[in-house]
Design goal:
Layout: H1 6-17, E1 21-26, E2 32-37, E3 47-52, H2 57-64, E4 67-73, E5 80-90, H3 96-101, E6 123-136, E7 141-146
Antiparallel strand pairs: 1-2, 1-4, 3-6, 4-5, 5-6, 6-7
């Protein structure tokens, strides 16, 4: 689903301007694991995908518990985007379109595991976006751009502007 609103475009632009995002997974027991990842989108925020080795902790966590969260921010941390959704592990020939869409594989960290030109040594992690929250921490503002459960009355949280000084 494309987010066609000013907030949606603002959230997408912030994500598109980032070089890395913080991906957080959790084991079946709830033990969190966060790691910085290179990532790609398809020009809008319906999926976020990345490449990794199949032997990593994040892959083990996703196989047990597909819920993940990504965090992106501008350099000053003035704007932060949280993206939540289910992530699937894609292997074999199904990963080819994702593999082909990722540039710079020869410079990626995962090249330490195997030859980055050979996709059969890697997996694609693809997050289907279910929720997008645009945060303005310095202004105490949060805007839900997209919510899986739009009927949830708590899906939009917005504090008033801080008092003028």
């Amino acid at each position: 689903m494309k987010t066609d609103s000013d907030l949606g475009r603002m959230a997408y632009q912030l994500v598109a301007d980032c070089k890395v995002g913080l991906m957080t997974t959790a084991s079946a027991e709830g033990q969190p694991h966060a790691t910085w990842m290179n990532f790609e989108t398809k020009g809008y925020l319906d999926e976020i995908f990345t490449i990794t080795a199949p032997i990593t902790q994040k892959v083990a966590n996703i196989r047990e518990n597909p819920r993940t969260e990504w965090l992106f921010s501008n350099p000053s941390m003035e704007r932060v985007v949280l993206v939540c959704g289910n992530t699937r592990v894609i292997e074999g020939p199904d990963m080819k379109p994702y593999w082909d869409a990722v540039p710079g594989k020869s410079k990626a960290y995962y090249r330490e595991y195997a030859n980055p030109q050979e996709s059969d040594h890697f997996v694609v992690l693809c997050t289907t976006v279910g929720k997008i929250v645009l945060n303005r921490p310095s202004m105490y503002r949060k805007f839900t751009v997209k919510e899986e459960d739009a009927a949830n009355p708590h899906s939009v949280f917005c504090l008033p502007d801080p008092p003028a000084s």
